[in-house]
């Protein structure tokens, strides 16, 4: 049976590589919805994916700031109308602004929570409330959510919440046949990682396609045998 996947934060990094794996390697994911804010990077990535997609794949895009609740709901409504049921959801969009505790602003903490925690919750809730039946939800947390890191208070706290929220989703949605997987990557060479560790040589750490391959495995026939509340992927 063909499936539809929605990936947030699909303009670059882990999200874009996940979409690429779905398009080129999945036999049954035929419709892919990509969420990110409007940017030339996003447009170029979509253009490149459309040009290289195998026949029969449909790519649907929406410019959406997942931290803006009205915009998020409007876009979910229009996407649900266009593609119908979302079978696979990858809550991947993430934001961080690492600063020492004394400099952390509450507005920025709220933004971090809006993007990293409330958006995944709102997407799942809105779709459930509109009759959606998920087969698989993958929430991208972080190893920083398992152990708090100096200078990363807002990010670490938000990712800890993602790990815990995923456990609740997993328990509550099991009766609908929905698998919920929380995935915590370690350091991965992306723009977000550069913000967290500007001095690091990106060639020495995990690449986004490595994480994307693990996500793809969850969607494959063997994926159902991976039963963990928090799958850690790190070097
Ligand atoms: N890289 C690592 O070392 C690492 C480790 C652990 C966990 N993670 C997690 O992995 C996920 C993906 O991050 P990445 O490392 O691939 O970073 P990235 O390359 O910087 O990508 C982040 C993605 O999130 C999107 N995003 C950020 N704010 C958004 C907003 N308000 N609305 C919509 N989209 C938004 C960005 O899209 P636009 O800016 O184009 O809208 C972009 O597509 C995040 O949840 C991150 O916390 C990363």
UniProtKB/TrEMBL annotation:
Q: Which Gene3D superfamilies match?
A: NAD(P)-binding Rossmann-like Domain
- A Pfam family annotated for this UniProt entry: adh_short
Task: Mention one GO biological process in which this protein takes part, according to its record.
Answer: monocarboxylic acid metabolic process
Q: Give the InterPro entries listed for this entry.
A: NAD(P)-bd_dom_sf, Sc_DH/Rdtase_CS, SDR, SDR_fam
Protein origin, superkingdom: Bacteria
Similarity remark:
Belongs to the short-chain dehydrogenases/reductases (SDR) family.
Protein name in the entry: Short-chain dehydrogenase
